[in-house]
Design goal:
Helix content is 27%, strand content 26%. By secondary structure, it is an alpha+beta fold. The strands form 7 sheets. An 8-stranded mixed β-sheet has the order 5-4-8-2-1-12-15-14. Strands 24, 25, 26, 27, 28 and 29 form a 6-stranded antiparallel β-sheet that branches. The longest helix is centred in the middle third of the chain and has 19 residues, at 204-222. It binds zinc ion.
Length: 618
């Protein structure tokens, strides 16, 4: 049995060429020939990315002698048999500024282990040592290291040796190296660091205070102590960009720098609210998906797709609690929360794909559909994030109703944590449903059959009435109407005519999407077409909407458009804007019992130890 650690060594060797230098030493390689490979995907992002395509050159040696290497598949090599330690040396091209990849230039270095560290087949459970070397002299003076990896021989934030118990842990701790900003706070006794790279003017103290509220909320939600000893937010601030990826003791976040709070900012802007929601989402994942995880993700094969029908629970329920935690921890108001939920519902109701694909299928097909969306996506698929969040709302309110407010989805999450999260046992494919039924003590078979395995819309109007919230659908007032807010005064009195299209960004009126059954599709227009004139007058992205919506539904318009380089003509009959924009409104004058239910929902009352006493009192 092998006890010696696999040793990795990484250096941001050539920032100008975006090349990391990596070495991997296997103390006792397979005498029949050691197999090694780089993952094809990174956990949390369900798409085959073939990270090995960024390996520029690779060689192997043992005791100063070269060892032959033969590629046997995408990102998989077999080394010739050798005795004694085997070292693989390679360069990795790193020019992907996303939370999923690796990036290196003269301003910083960032990497995920999935992009850098070869998996040594048969040694996945061996401990790993990682030596992180500084960049060459003249580059990166003052650079430091930020990661949730355990330090072995390194000062805090220093170059040196870090360690992991196994390969799975090694690749679950992204690393930022650079001259970053740093603040730290304590949440329920756990040190949290906030690291920001990129140019920014963030009020670090404010950001730390607000993130502390979010973290303490989530830790107390699942119950102290927190499952990690330390946690790191790795934030990259850019002019334009967005993304987040969860890890067991850290998260990588990519955001626009002006979504972060600056000195003197009052309140929580819509942009900052979005950032806090993203941070909250990834932090909730430290429980829901990193520890409470689908059985099929335990020891998952990273060389090929791994399918589950439960992403709606891991991403949808997380998407429900990310914003709910902001209102429960007092960072945003109830009205602001309902606005966010209304925007989510609007995104779901705008896509007719929700009537064709179930959440279970959306989860299963994430690899080929959700992550590889084309112009027809709104007509053909549903998001397990957004519809998943609405089903989470519906499940929560259904359990509250069925148990007379004694239990809720909060209890489901806590029971999932006790049963699967703490133990590390994977959740079977029906595990979330079974636990929900156990908590609700009623048969939820029809609920899941319709909402998760079928394509029914969640009955939000009915369920939200229990908590004194009206669910209203209205037509969009403009192409930029995201929903969540009531119509402007008089806005609903004028019927608005639409073509049933979405425009790409840019000055020309290029169609990015054409809605099924809409006026444009019936007239023969297609995604990619560029509308150049309506009734003989020039059309642009700026004036197309205005030129149409003042006309009555049913009126005919003559359209000139280019398909590729061919000018074509179309006659379209405009349609009335559909009622696909959702608004959630706090009902005025709700009775005391309804207000109490609403408060319990939005304030997240603590777990009720004595539900019988509550029932008696209520
Ligand atoms: Zn997520």
């Amino acid at each position: 049995m092998n006890q010696a650690a696999i040793c990795y060594r990484i250096c941001p060797r050539n920032p100008g060429a975006h090349l990391f230098e990596v070495h991997c030493t296997v103390p006792d390689p397979d005498p029949a020939g050691q197999r090694v490979g780089l993952p094809a995907w990174i956990p949390g992002s369900y798409m085959i990315r073939d990270f090995a395509r960024h390996i520029v050159c690779i060689r192997a040696q043992s005791q100063d002698e070269p060892v032959a290497l033969r590629k046997t598949g995408n990102g998989i090599w077999i080394c010739a048999p050798c005795s004694g330690p085997l070292t693989l040396s390679y360069e990795v091209y790193a020019w992907d500024l996303s939370v999923r990849g690796a990036h290196l230039d003269t301003t910083h270095a960032y990497f995920n282990g999935t992009s850098m560290f070869l998996q040594v087949h048969g040694h996945e459970h061996d401990s790993c040592v990682l030596q992180i070397d500084p960049p060459p002299a003249g580059v990166g003076d003052g650079w430091r290291v930020a990661t949730a990896l355990a330090r072995v021989r390194a000062e805090p934030h220093g170059f040196g040796t870090y360690g992991a118990d196994n390969y799975d842990e090694l690749i679950d701790h992204p690393v930022e190296i650079g001259d970053f900003s740093l603040t730290a706070f304590d949440a329920c006794g756990v040190r949290h660091e906030v690291v920001i790279s990129g140019r920014h003017r963030t009020d670090l103290a404010r950001l730390g205070r607000d993130l502390k509220c979010v973290c303490e909320h989530h830790i107390r939600f699942f119950g102290e102590p927190a499952p990690m000893d330390r946690y790191v937010f790795l934030i990259t601030a850019v002019g334009d960009g967005y993304g987040g990826l969860e890890h067991r003791a850290s998260t990588s976040l990519l955001c626009q720098r002006d979504t972060l709070p600056q000195a003197g900012d009052a309140g929580v802007s819509a942009e900052y609210r979005g950032f806090l929601g993203l941070a909250s989402h990834e932090y909730f994942h430290a429980w829901n998906v990193k520890r409470i995880k689908p059985l099929v993700f335990s020891g998952a094969d990273l060389s090929r797709e791994v399918h589950t029908r439960m992403l709606w629970a891991f991403e949808g329920i997380t998407s429900y609690y990310d914003d709910l935690a902001l209102v429960r921890s007092g960072l945003i108001t109830s009205s602001a929360y309902l606005e966010l939920l209304g925007e989510t519902a609007t995104r779901v109701w705008r896509g007719s794909g929700r009537l064709k694909q179930s959440l279970a299928d959306s989860s299963f097909d994430a690899w080929t559909k959700f992550y590889r969306q084309d112009e027809n996506a709104p007509n053909s698929i549903v998001s397990y994030y957004t519809k998943g969040a609405l089903v989470a709302v519906a499940l929560d309110l259904t359990i509250r109703r069925a148990t007379g407010e004694a239990r809720s989805l909060d209890d489901v999450m806590r029971l999932l944590w006790e049963r699967y999260g703490r133990s590390g046992i994977g959740v079977p494919e029906d595990g979330v449903e079974r636990v929900a039924e156990e908590v609700a003590a009623v048969d939820l078979g029809e609920f899941f059959e319709r909402m998760v395995y079928g394509t029914d819309d969640p009955p939000l109007a009915d369920l939200l009435a229990d908590v004194g919230v009206d669910f209203v659908l209205r037509p969009a007032e403009s192409d930029s109407d995201k929903g969540g807010k009531p119509a402007r005064k008089g806005g609903t009195e004028t019927l608005r005519s639409v073509l049933g299209v979405r425009l790409a960004s840019g000055a020309e009126a290029r169609l990015s999407q054409v809605s099924d059954g809409g006026a444009a599709q019936e007239a023969g227009l297609a995604a990619g077409d560029v509308i150049v004139a309506v009734d003989g007058l020039r059309a642009t992205s700026a004036n197309l909407e205005k030129s149409l919506h003042s006309r009555k539904p049913g009126s005919r318009v003559h359209i000139h458009a280019f398909r590729r380089d061919e000018l074509m003509e179309f006659d379209a009959t405009l349609k009335e804007a559909p009622a696909d924009t959702c608004v959630l409104v706090l009902r005025e004058g709700a009775d005391a019992a309804t207000c109490a239910r609403r408060a319990a929902w939005l304030q997240g009352t603590a777990p009720r130890a004595e539900p019988a006493a509550h029932a008696a009192g209520g």
